[in-house]
Amino acid sequence: MSLLDIHVLGSPILRQETARVEQITPELRRLVDDMFDTMEAAKGVGLAAPQVGRGERLAVVDADDARLVVINPEIVQKQGGIVRGEEGCLSIPEVYADVDRFATITVRAQDIDGAWYEVEASGLLGRCLQHEIDHLHGKLFTDRLSLLKKRAAMRDWEEEKVKYPKLLRVLPVGDLPPERDAASSR
Length: 186
Ligand code: ZN
Known about the structure:
By secondary structure, this protein is of the alpha+beta class.
């Protein structure tokens, strides 16, 4: 188990399209475990592969009591209109803004064993999945803001980004979550 460094706004990988995962290897399973640990240590509710410098189309989320890995996820249905809610991003620390998202979505994705499943999500989970799927296509929540709001968010970021001269956010080891038991750490 290890914590991964998080790429922050300005790192080119956050703008790249990801590549479809064709095979679930032991290395990929380790990546997913490390992403869950990193997300927890950073107190986030979602983390996408590009945020840890990887090009695979996968993300992890832990919101509304759902702990999911989504591999090759796709939004197959959008319902219930648009809802506005506050978002932040582990790659843009200390910047928050209201973002419009679909109220309810259905996501089709593969799990860690490669099996396809569908999940219908609204509330925080639905918002989080939309945010992470955006990441997998090089898109950040700030891209969805009006010009005025985006300008305000970028002003906040100007002050914050000096803390990350290498465009990497290194989590302190003290933030390592306690070892989970064998059954839940698979
Ligand atoms: Zn994010």
